[in-house]
Amino acid sequence: MQQLHLLKSFKIIDGNTEARKSAYRGIAAMPRPRLPPNLVTKLAHPPTPKEAPRLWNAKRRIKGSVGLTPGQFLQIEKIPPSKWFDEYKERKESLDRKLSIEAAGETEPQSWKEGLESSEPGALSIEAAGETEPQSSKEGSEPSETSELDEETDEIELPPWKPLSRQDVDAIQKLRNGDGVLEWWKLDRKHLDKFMDAHPELRRVSSDVRSFIWETGLEMDQSSISALLQNPVRFFSASANVPHETRKQIYFPEPSDAVVLMRTPHLGPRYAAFDVPRHFSKVDLRAYLKNVYNVDVLHIRSVVVQHKVERKDPTDPYTQGPLFRPPSSKKMTCQLAQPFVYPEEVESFDAWEYKDYWNSNRAMVANERNKTSFGTTHPNKKHRQSIAQQAQDLLKGRVKWAPTWQKLGDQPATGSP
């Protein structure tokens, strides 16, 4: 019989040799586990973008901060601002010498003309009559890779291009470090705006990014500046990148952090007791009463009250849950400089629907209680009392008895129009 049972089990198990051997030895073969597919959840109703304050430290903020496009960022890496500023300074000096020579009536050397003409991307073209806006490439030339990356970017209104004066060039030149790199992000607000307006790529940066560079430029380095210009929204979303002093903080206090005045008339008119958070100190309460209510405090006593041990599930008829101790509470008693009178107690709670709330709460608790074992093992006393009251009314003649079909004959059926 045992062999016959094992032979029948072969039909259930897969036809591999190992399963047959294990079944023959009397060992149950484990089926291959079937792993559920990866669950990919999506919102049924995705949230629509709403207007919100532009916070630098917000995770989900309006994408209003404008940095460099991918093509402009590649151009910045190819020609750094230090190299661009050196070329700008050299051509500025050449232009000054050219204008001074023309004013003196002398002829211009041929080498200066060759130095003024340049076809490199991002270079400046300075004419004898004055300075014009820099062009990224010559007219009629083939489009570069950087121009193709900028085709899909949004069009924004750029500020008018303004050249740097001689005084601005001298002030910017002072911010070179030991390696010869121009730390332009450490300029003051006046020269920073002029430098970024004159640069062919940095002109596109929005005003809030400029303000952030001016406020935190002394603490930033080349890598952080590159990350900021490449993607300002992603840079601002990381709270570690934004100093605490420059954030727009929104304070939401904890609901449990409340100072509650307790009604203790037995202490006298010069003493007031408060229920305060546990992290509240005597100095905090003294400053709170003085700044908010303009009340002077002479002395403060504090005590931490430890609560009794309770059960986590007192409704459980068997174990009532494990033991635990609720968090302790802190109370402070203040001696005031001037006596005070407690506010009048509220007598009418009709505005808060006090009676309706408690009646519905009692009915809900009674209904839930009747669904448990208590309702099946205990009689319904209210139902018994109502039946007894109806019998007394019938015996004393207060109510005339009639069959149900006659008593309710003139009333419409339940659910009928």
From TrEMBL:
SUPFAM superfamilies: Ribosomal proteins S24e, L23 and L15e (SSF54189). Residues 99-163 are annotated as: Disordered. One of its GO terms (cellular component) is mitochondrial large ribosomal subunit. One of its GO terms (biological process) is mitochondrial translation. It comes from the Eukaryota. Residues 145-157 have a biased composition (Acidic residues). Keywords: Ribonucleoprotein, Ribosomal protein. The keyword Ribosomal protein applies. One of its GO terms (molecular function) is structural constituent of ribosome. Belongs to the universal ribosomal protein uL23 family. This is Large ribosomal subunit protein uL23m. It comes from Exophiala sideris.
